[in-house]
Amino acid sequence: MKYLKLLPFLFFSMVIFSNNIDMRDEAIEARIMPLGNACMQGEDCGISTSGPGYKVSLVKTASASEPAASGSENEHIVKMLNAGADGVMVFEPAALKIKKGDTVIFKSVDPGHNSVSAPNLIPSGATPWESIQGQDFSVTFDTEGVYVYQCTPHLVMAMIGLIQVGEATNLADIKSNLGPFQSLIALNQDRLDKYFSQLESL
Ligand SMILES: [Cu+2]
Questions:
Q1: What is the pLDDT of residues 74-131, one digit of tens each?
Q2: Nearest to 120 by CA among 98, 147, 143
Q3: pLDDT tens digits for range 170-202
Q4: Cα(119) to centroid of ligand 1, in Å?
């Protein structure tokens, strides 16, 4: 029975011990909570996000590698799009006139497109190209003339484009070779003529 004398001490030490646990939990919570309280721009989190000396904003910034929309003087952007002014599955602009030595960047704005020079529809001596689907691709044009190109998965829907480098020296050749290319286009068959007349008006 002499151990009964120890009971108050035992009880007291248990209270101390459990208090210590509570204090530790609070300390951990106090450290974690600020991490869970990130305030996104546009949310009302009770935080002043403007005003002198105080600024909080988590904003998605544009990728630094993204070229300017218009390109530089010797660089031209052709967007590969699911939908544009001419309908679905288009290059934009589809008709483009550039100088010899200029570069065209085929910009993969929407995934699943590529740019491929059409067989027998580029100037003789020019280098054909074929880009990987869903990736940006650039071509520098050192040979004068008219180039026809396509998107492999969407040629059937007339996802095609024309580039004229300098003078249209090979235009008659291109037009006489169009047959096999044209036969692969099932939808939007008017685009080819439309793009040729756009090119001539540039
Ligand atoms: Cu495509």
A1: 999 999 999 999 999 999 999 999 999 999 999 999 999 999 999 999 999 999 999 9
A2: 147
A3: 999 999 999 999 999 999 999 999 999 999 999
A4: 17
C-alpha to C-alpha distance for 139 and 192, rounded to whole angstroms: 22
Residue 66 lies in a domain: no
Q: What domain range is 184 assigned to?
A: 75-201
- Would 69 be classed as within a structural domain? no
Tokens linked to 33: 């909570």
Whether pTM exceeds 0.85: no
Q: Two tokens at 41? A: 């721009």
Q: Same domain, yes or no, for 81 and 56?
A: no
Distance 192 CA to ligand 1 centre (A): 15
How far, in Å, is the centroid of ligand 1 from the Cα of 57? Answer: 37
Cross-strand pairs, 105? 77, 138
CA 201 to chain centre: 30
